[in-house]
Specification:
By secondary structure, the protein is α+β, with helices and mostly antiparallel strands. The chain has a single domain, classed as Alpha-Beta Plaits. It is built from 5 helices and 8 strands. The strands form 4 sheets. Strands 1-8 form a two-stranded antiparallel sheet. It has a two-stranded antiparallel sheet with strand order 2-3. Strands 4-5 form a two-stranded antiparallel sheet. The longest helix has 26 residues. The radius of gyration is 19 Å and the shape is elongated.
Length: 165
């Protein structure tokens, strides 16, 4: 069964541990600039959103690559870059709708989430469980459950306000 990263930004505290773990896992250095996951921060609102490759089914990065250097791993479902083929044109960076494809100016290579070969470290180390590695078909169920809980809570709050009048 294919699995995906599910991100619940409402749980994210902005600690950026996911970025540090990712950079150490892939490059052996604690450097958020080398991370495949990026935490976007809106400090004034207190909102933090981890952004990572969505492993799109019809991936723009795959479609735009002139040398077909990006392909899907059959075991994990992750889109992977073949560095023996990649020419570094950065077309994939330009077309990613999530900004999840990156370019390392030091190594002169594009890079993106590869799901750590099926064992994503960002999900393992996220203490608040803002990042989970779940079966792809379960994501919509989790989102529906969350929406139903929020709707129920809002209805109860409205009923309490009405009763108090």
């Amino acid at each position: 069964m294919e699995k995906v990263l599910m991100i619940d930004y409402e749980k994210c505290t902005g600690c950026r541990l996911c970025e540090l773990v990712c950079s150490v896992m892939h490059d052996g250095v604690s450097n958020p600039a080398r991370s495949r996951i990026k935490v976007m921060k809106w400090e004034s609102e207190g909102i933090y959103v981890p952004v990572s490759c969505q492993q799109c089914e019809d991936a723009p990065c795959v479609n735009v690559c002139p040398v077909k250097a990006i392909s899907r791993d059959e075991d994990t479902g992750a889109l992977l870059v073949d560095y023996n083929v990649c020419i570094g044109c950065r077309s994939c960076v330009a077309v990613c709708p999530f900004g999840a494809m990156n370019y390392n100016i030091i190594d002169k290579k594009v890079f993106k989430c590869d799901l750590c070969g099926g064992d994503p470290q960002c999900a393992k180390f996220c203490e608040v469980h803002a990042i989970s590695y779940v079966d792809a078909d379960r994501v919509s169920i989790f989102k529906k459950k969350d929406a139903a809980e929020r709707l129920t809570s809002a209805q109860k709050e409205a009923a309490n306000l009405q009763a108090a009048m």
